[in-house]
Design a protein that fits this description.
Radius of gyration: 19 Å
Number of domains: 2
Helix content: 55-70%
Mean pLDDT: 90
Largest sheet: none
Oligomer: single chain
Number of strands: 0
Shape: globular
Structural class: mainly alpha
Length: 165
Amino acid sequence: MSSLTKRSTKLYNGLSNKQKAALTFQNLAELNADEVPIITGTVEKKHYSQRDTEYTDWIETFFSVASLWGMSYWQQKYQEAACLVLVAEQDTDQAIKRFREVEARVTALHYALQEFCNTHGLDVQSVYKFAGAEQPNLTGKLYDEFYLAEWIENLNNCIHSKLSA
């Protein structure tokens, strides 16, 4: 354990569970996956009677994936709509190029979701319903390969480390 990790752990030990939860959420939002286990490692473990932890871990994972995907989808759709307004107002090559870039990211989000769902046995329609989105016909649509790879990783990072894919 590095000295920086030891200092972080010592700092986190002095925080309330509410403060630790807020920091965990903040680090997840910033995609700072390295800090999250350090924070959660300082949370006291208690023993409860509960549903099987594999089940609860997977259901939490699926809700996390659906929530993360849905928020990102609607952010991209907002950007897509803003680009359409620019295209309508300016009709420049730059505005059209920007719209196509955003459109390719939206398509990449759909492909990333499909891959995650196919890999983990999750019904993709359920995620679309949860997110308030519709599954499009992706035939012939271009997608951003880098954004796709980033989002496959983001969705897979929602899986609890103790779960095996």
